[in-house]
Amino acid sequence: MADENITTHTAPDGSTHTTVIDRGTSSSSGGGWMFGLIALALIALGVYYFAGMSASEANKNNAVAAAAKDVSNAAQNVGNAANDAASAVSKNN
After folding, report:
1. pTM of the entire structure?
2. pLDDT digits (tens, 9 = 90+) for 18-77
3. Rounded to an integer, what distance in angstroms lies between the CA atom of residue 64 and that of residue 71?
4. Which of 52, 59, 2 has the alpha carbon at shortest distance from 27?
């Protein structure tokens, strides 16, 4: 049902003026909801994408750290072997 206000004004000279304000029923097509859902989905995809990039970066950093640790262990083994060789040479002399 429409909400309608009718106001009639009478001027001092006897003339009347009628104003009708019609506030019809409001109907929404749901476009605002659809826009909001699409925006929310895009935000969620962006967060997922950037979170995946962060995980990839962390995995790369962990791989580099592991490789550096392996190089350190290899250098330690070479140093130990050099010490053992030096000790063996000095025992034979």
Report:
1. 0.39
2. 888 777 666 666 778 888 889 999 999 988 888 777 777 788 888 999 999 989 888 998
3. 11
4. 2
pLDDT at residue 21, rounded to an integer = 78
Cα gap 22→1, rounded to integer Å: 11
Q: Amino acid identity of 21?
A: I
Q: Domain ranges in the chain?
A: 51-93
DSSP for 4-54 reads EEEEEEE-TTS-EEEEEEEEPPP---SHHHHHHHHHHHHHHHHHHHHHHHH
Beta strands in 1-93 (DSSP E): 3-10, 16-23
In one-letter notation, the amino acid at residue 70 is D
